[in-house]
């Protein structure tokens, strides 16, 4: 059973998905997709309805891009739990779709933020970069993708929190996400990347204020999520393109996934809490992950209706 009383370590998250795969061998499949800079194993969990039909449509979701956004892996795990353990209630979500989930895209950063208060607000990966004899750690994985890389809202300074990396895909973690996106691009309908905080449902583009041709479809899906959350909990999510409702920032995974062929690509910025917004107390996990699930389920239902 998944606990929402506390935040899990990367090892506990891995144990949880390993355990699910053991318990539901006909519906849950694990795949090692690569290794982080510090050689932590990156594993996807594929959730199906067990009918073994190949080449179903795909929803790909990741969490834990940014190290300090602990609520993200917690919410992603909760979604996994609902789809697997409450399969009977959610069978429709898995009828023509496989869900592929990478719960912690940046495990080195996630683990580092659990080493003490000084590290708690660290954002990036953990590959060291030298600048004038000084060492700073990590690139911003959400500025490291090769689509309008480092053009806007990103930095070339390794000590910046939005360091784009020395070149696109300099981080093994973003290479892994890139490879997953390309593997499923031809049947990838929706990409969801879970961040915090601020209560936003964001769609492309994040590199320009212009909107993609199909922005209305993106807006329909995101709005379905926002409306469902508002109705269930009263929480307001702001919906719109990344650049227009948040800020311009190029080289992010959402733009890349959309460019690679996913029809729908959404960054969900969950509810914030604690002192900085990135550190909601564990007592808030339950409320925030159930709220997130309501939004994600509604977006998936809208996608299934449209595609
Ligand atoms: O800046 C980010 O990477 C995301 N916000 S966060 O506070 N979680 O860091 C927003 C990314 C939105 N997407 C694009 N700008 N493409
Ligand atoms: Zn983030």
Word description of this protein:
There is one protein chain. The protein has one domain: Aminopeptidase. The protein has 9 helices and 10 strands. It has helices at residues 10-23, 71-85, 87-90, 107-112, 172-184, 215-233, 242-245, 253-260, 285-306, and strands spanning 28-35, 41-47, 57-63, 97-102, 128-131, 134-137, 188-196, 200-203, 238-241, 264-270. The chain has an 8-stranded mixed sheet with strand order 1-2-4-3-7-10-8-9, sandwiched between helices. Bound molecules: N~2~-sulfamoyl-L-arginine and zinc ion (ZN). The site of N~2~-sulfamoyl-L-arginine (0X9) has 14 residues, from helix 8 and strand 10.
Task: Write a brief structural summary.
This protein is α/β, with parallel strands linked by helices and 307 residues long. Helices cover 34% and strands 20% of the residues. Its cofactor is Zn(2+).
Mind telling me the CATH class? Alpha Beta
- The backbone outline, from C-alpha atoms, is globular
CATH superfamily: Zn peptidases
Largest sheet: 8 strands, mixed
**Considering DSSP H and I runs of 4 or more, what fraction of the residues is helical?**
25-40%
Q: Terminal Cα separation, in Å?
A: 33 Å
Task: Tell me the number of strands.
Answer: 10
N to C succession of SSEs: HEEEHHEHEEHEEHEHHEH
Low-confidence stretches are none
Give every kind of bound small molecule, once each: N~2~-sulfamoyl-L-arginine, zinc ion
* Rg, nearest Å: 18 Å
Query: Number of DSSP helices?
Result: 9
Q: Do you know the CATH topology?
A: Aminopeptidase
GO biological process, one term: proteolysis
GO cellular component, one term: extracellular space
Domain Peptidase M14: 6-303
Cofactor: Zn(2+)
